[in-house]
Write a structure and sequence with these properties.
The chain is an alpha+beta fold and about 350 residues long. It is built from 12 helices and 16 strands. The structure holds zinc ion.
């Protein structure tokens, strides 16, 4: 399982050579093997790191079992460093070469799809699921006393209907309380960060009120299903919540970039302005629309990137050479300067401009 420990190990990594970070969407509908291999080949072409390319190809050919919908791979063969994680969620295919592992896409996945606790609750008990990065990691159940039995024995003992109903009510509360206590331990043990409650409105409301406050504040959704719901139903609904959170996160970021750019503050939009800001080392977070590429020119002297055809570099007077993908160069430059890159999908504003950035100053 890719979790906090793995993420921290990538954050802490410091080696002597460049690190190749590869994210590969392996979720192709048709001709999956071919499609994945072609995508991989096209990405690796851009790296310019033959030993790392060989290590990645070796892994995909020989070690990976083709499970999952995405792959995250980090390689720095200068130091013999190699890590690979299959992911149950699709990721935007992208390759980064930088002094350190490029973890933003994984960190975003953890934010939006990581450490979910799901509780499916009814009057008698609860089923608990630990759901992480699109996968069911663990499940447990707690079952209290049967409600029907209590009702029958209650009616017989008291001899009047009201007494039986009270007993039933008490039993339900006891069961819900037991379920809440069980959930408390389960959530703590799994270190969940988001909680989804599933069940009828009535049961969920009562269960929620019995949960300790610290868990109540982590509830991000309620799914109205009955106890017989299959885990796959829950899975789809929880993934939809994750997707909504992901989209919101992206929208907020892009909106911030556009607003700041419009105000002439710390934001920039469009390829040329962004490339200038990149050259000046001002980009803190580069925002790139998934799949956006653009040819351009790079100064042979100082590395200045532009889409305009200029005779001489305005900074160092050297000549320009054509480059196939100015966006890729910008990504490398920002990462080398210690900035971040966010690859954004399904965002109409960014789809039009392709690229933008939050500036340091
Ligand atoms: Zn120059």
């Amino acid at each position: 399982m890719f979790g906090d420990v793995a993420l921290q190990s990538l954050l802490d990594y410091a080696g002597n050579g460049p690190v190749l970070s590869l994210y590969l969407n392996t979720d192709a509908v048709e001709n999956r093997t071919e499609a994945v291999k072609i995508a991989l080949k096209n990405l690796l072409k851009k790296a310019g790191l033959p030993e790392d390319e060989a290590a990645v190809s070796r892994f995909v050919e020989l070690e990976w079992d083709w499970r999952g919908r995405g792959l995250a791979i980090f390689s720095s063969q200068t130091d013999g460093f190699f890590r690979a994680w299959p992911l149950a969620l699709p990721v935007a295919s992208r390759l980064f070469v930088a002094p350190r592992p490029y973890i933003k896409p994984l960190a975003n996945l953890m934010d939006n799809y990581g450490y979910y606790g799901i509780v499916l609750v009814d009057k008698q008990g609860a089923r608990l699921f630990f759901f992480h990065l699109g996968e069911l990691v663990e499940q447990e159940g707690v079952l209290g006393e049967s409600i029907r039995q209590t009702r029958e024995s209650g009616s017989a003992a008291s001899g009047r209907r009201g007494g039986g109903d009270d007993r039933t009510r008490e039993q339900i509360l006891r069961n819900l309380k037991e379920a809440a206590e069980f959930a408390d331990r389960f959530f703590a043990e799994k270190r969940v960060r988001k909680i989804v409650l599933a069940g009828t409105d009535e049961n969920v409301a009562e269960f929620r009120a019995l949960l300790p406050k610290r868990w109540q504040s982590l509830v991000v959704g309620h799914i109205n299903v009955n106890m017989s719901a299959g885990f796959n139903d829950l899975r789809e609904r929880v993934l939809a919540l994750g997707e909504a959170a992901e989209r919101q996160q992206e929208e907020r970021l892009v909106e911030q970039v556009f607003t700041l750019a419009a105000k002439g503050e710390n934001g920039v939009v469009g390829l040329d302005d962004t490339l200038s800001a990149v050259h000046e080392g001002r980009v803190q977070t580069l925002v790139v629309y998934e799949g956006y590429e653009a040819g351009g020119w790079r100064c042979a002297g100082c590395g200045y990137l532009t889409t305009q055809t200029l005779e001489r570099c305005p900074f160092c007077e050297r000549e320009f050479e054509p480059i196939a993908d100015a966006v890729e160069m910008a990504v490398r430059r920002v990462l080398a300067d210690g900035g971040e890159v966010d690859v954004v999908r399904d965002n109409p504003s960014l789809a039009q401009t392709g690229i933008g950035g939050l500036l340091r100053y």
